[in-house]
What we know:
By secondary structure, the protein is an alpha+beta fold. The chain is 37% helix and 14% strand.
Amino acid sequence: MSWWRKRRGRPEQHPRGPVDGPGMTVDSKAVREHFADFVASRRGVEAFVEPPTNVTATTLVLIAHDGEWTRRAVTSRDVAFELPRALGIPVYDVNQIGYPSRMREWNSRQRKGPARQQPDNDWQGEQT
Length: 128
């Protein structure tokens, strides 16, 4: 098929640059607003900077007291450390201290789904 041959070797281009990976385009204003909303609506939020990899840009993860978290790409490592400080929350390098256990526990709870209802203890069954 000639269509496949024409497209081979040509990566799809986005008007503002790559949409994923280390050189991706990041909407800094949207990231800042998202993080500000997350911090304002939750308590005990801490930030963790994740380094870039071959397939992802530098990312910033915010984790609340209960383990709920959100992740967004940022433009640079410097920005990843400056943004949480501007929001008034602590920031850590995930390579140095790792992720908090509450994040893993929250993920585990989310996979299990909503909590099951407890049986009704007021039920009076037949007594033998």
